[in-house]
Design a protein that fits this description.
about 65% helix, globular, mainly alpha
């Protein structure tokens, strides 16, 4: 098998591993937490996105790693890192009844787009995954973790807001309306 196949398998297995860990271990514990806490935890995972600046350091990567991949990946992650901190600070200052979610949405959309752009361009620009050198762990372990965290963040963001941050015994307006109409 060639190195491209090994690399693709590593990325796929990284995604499978992180989605399995989240679905069976992390999410069952997180889903009982208030929405703001869930989003803070998922956002904090991106505080290490500065790792991608390693793509710019020859020695950690080979000279064969194309700048057309390395530069957008590194600087896209730095932008996502800044947005993660802005979102986190907004969540820190939020109240359950009035969460500040716009920065969280922006961060997750930009952060996900950055990762998907790297996934889309990498096959065209990188001919040998060995050119990642020591940074091979970023696209095979850390990027799958980030994509998983973004997925779960979108899952939380898409849920209707429960009053006072509570999910237990929370009913949608449609359910309440249906109950009133039946009376």
């Amino acid at each position: 098998m060639n190195t491209i196949v090994y690399f693709g398998m590593s990325v796929a297995l990284g995604l499978i591993a992180w989605f399995t860990i989240f679905a069976t271990i992390i999410w069952p514990k997180m889903k009982s937490q208030p929405r703001i806490q869930q989003l803070k935890s998922l956002t904090a995972i991106s505080f290490f996105r500065y790792f991608a600046t390693a793509f710019l350091i020859v020695g950690l990567v080979t000279r064969k790693l194309p700048a057309g991949f390395a530069n957008p990946a590194a600087f896209g992650d730095l932008i996502a890192l800044v947005l993660a901190y802005i979102a986190f600070i907004g969540l820190q200052r939020s109240r359950a009844e009035r969460p500040r979610l716009l920065p969280v949405w922006i961060f997750n959309v930009v952060g996900t787009a950055d990762l998907l752009f790297a996934f889309a361009t990498a096959p065209f620009l990188i001919k040998d995954p060995g050119s990642f050198g020591l940074t091979y762990i970023i696209p095979t372990v850390y990027v799958p973790l980030l994509l998983t965290a973004h997925f779960y963040a979108f899952k939380v963001l898409a849920q209707p807001h429960a009053p006072h941050g509570r999910r237990d015994n929370y009913r949608t307006e449609d359910a309440i309306t249906d109950d009133l109409l039946r009376r």
